[in-house]
Write a structure and sequence with these properties.
By secondary structure, this protein is an all-alpha fold. The chain contains six helices and no strands. It has one domain (54-208): Ferritin. Helix 2 packs parallel to helix 4 (123-137) and helix 2 packs antiparallel against helix 5 (143-174). Residues 1-28 have a biased composition (Low complexity).
């Protein structure tokens, strides 16, 4: 009986030590992870002209998307010229016309809040346009290139949808009713364009590319 109790006590002690060791190891790993995170993550110092409130952020967003739309106007004709499917070519031509309207609406947005229309470089759109240009070089003309053009165009649309949705939300909070109306009009058209591109891709275009 005494031997059994000794063995039981020894097993219990060993188990407790193992648990303690595991806990200690887990704590140590967490501390190491925090330490490693601290070496790479730093607090970003704001620029001198950084947005100080939602109004500033809203205006910065308008400048950003105005640059993006103007840059897109220059890029879309190249996409249209390199597309093969007639439906795709027509949809790009239509979106060129819509984009011209979007630029005008943005200028009207600035006017509605009493500000001069200004464009500020949009790094995101610049990258998307560069990616679209590289797709043309990396695909053979025909269905494969058309599929690539649609993929590039939809990435642009998704960025614009996110941007216009965010700006509309800001305009609503700030009470910019006219700007909100204009932004929602454009948001609706961007979503419709995205849906059109999806329908074109689904009408055997992707299958032909295969």
């Amino acid at each position: 009986m005494a031997t059994t109790m000794k063995t039981s006590t020894k097993t219990s002690t060993t188990g407790s030590k193992a648990k303690a060791g595991a806990k200690e190891s887990s704590t140590s790993n967490m501390q190491k992870a925090k330490s490693n995170a601290g070496t790479t993550a730093t607090k970003v110092k704001a620029k001198a002209d950084a947005a100080k409130d939602l109004q500033d952020l809203f205006e910065d967003g308008l400048k950003d998307i105005l640059w993006a739309e103007k840059a897109l106007l220059k890029a879309l004709p190249k996409m249209e010229k390199n597309a093969t499917a007639e439906k795709l070519k027509r949809s790009i031509t239509l979106h060129i016309q819509e984009t011209e309207t979007h630029v005008q609406r943005l200028e009207d947005c600035f006017e509605s809040i009493g500000k001069k229309a200004q464009a500020a470089k949009c790094d995101a759109m610049e990258g998307l346009i560069e990616e679209g240009a590289s797709i043309l070089e990396e695909t053979q003309p025909g269905a494969v290139r058309d599929a690539g053009i649609i993929a590039a165009a939809q990435k642009v649309e998704h960025y614009e949808i996110a941007t216009y949705g965010t700006l509309a939300a800001f305009a609503k909070v700030l009470g910019h009713e006219q700007a909100l109306k204009l932004l929602l009009q454009t948001l609706k058209e961007e979503k419709k364009c995205d849906e059109l591109l999806t329908s074109i891709a689904d009408t055997n275009l992707n299958s032909k590319a295969e």
